[in-house]
Amino acid sequence: MPFGGEWKYQISNSIRKTDELGKYISITPEKDEDISAVESEFSWCITPYYANLMERNDSQCPIIKQAVPDITELHDPLGVMDPLDEEKHSPAPNIVKVYPDRIAWCVSNSCAVLCRHCLRKRMVGRESFDFSKEARKSALDYIARTPEIRDVLLTGGDPLIYDDGMIEEILARLRAIKHVEIIRIGSRTPCTMPQRITEGLCSMLKKYHPLWLNTQFNHPKELTREATEACNRLADAGIPLGNQSVLLRGINDDPKIMKELVRGLVKMRVRPYYIYQCQTLSGTAHFRTPIETGIEIIRKLRGFTTGFAVPTYVLDTPYGKVPMSPNYIVDRDKDAVYLRNFEGKIWREPNPMDENSPDAYI
Length: 362
Ligand SMILES: *Cc1c(COP(=O)(O)O)cnc(C)c1O
Prior knowledge:
binds pyridoxal-5'-phosphate; 3-stranded antiparallel sheet; 362 residues; 3 domains; alpha/beta; 12 strands; TIM Barrel
């Protein structure tokens, strides 16, 4: 084991070539050609840990589909590189501001695994990303002089790809800004490289509370013993954990799979937070589902499982995230509303009329 422990091993042995990948799954000569065609457009790398979860001979394996380049990535006429127009919403280097009181700060351009559905493909794995001392200082200066920012989300790439020292420097500088009330980290490492969540990292992080962390599990297969232990260490450090899944065709676009996923997550003390509609992002046409699929998944979760295990289904847009949910209000009839419960039963509830606008109805 190299200096730095098990997670450094995962990074230095990251799989980036088809002959290495061939030790985990079968790579036909056609597949080999496909991967070299795709990789010049969209780069890839996979931790040995995540590759170990792959089913060798199952091309439908949800782990393979999320991590191994597929030729269909090159057939996406609608996809664009920056569907959220994030570059236009950037008041300082690598900062995205869409909301009045909070920002996303992309502090890294690399990840343990480069997901095929990654929203930030335009920067992740690319050289042009600038996170020099000057760029960092100018982002921090912007936050310091913008008092309405009370919530800073550190994202990327993956902030936890750095050593503890670098992460601590960012956290300490943010904590020195009085109006920053909460700090959040978005990291997929609990799923793709759980070895990163060391005791040392957790005892450093807990000095910077209130600190929250959102991760990304998309399929029950990812809820392994190692991932559970990583989440335990974070939760034991007092860090509230959330999960942001992406709705992916052929991976989790099925109410049964989603129910298993959210139930497994709450067992790990991870609260399902969002399910994202897959964006019209370059190279993801094969993953996109109709929005109705997502709404139907929520309808089959709400009431059928623990209330706090039901995430909010959202579409992210350049104007912010828009929640999409089944409609439970069926009708308004004078001073009553008719509501539909989770099983389809109708309930009539008296509901006062608004005296100022008696014609208004839901
Ligand atoms: C998602 C996002 C946030 C955080 O949104 P919440 O709904 O508060 O979790 C903040 N800023 C940007 C630019 C985002 O995309």
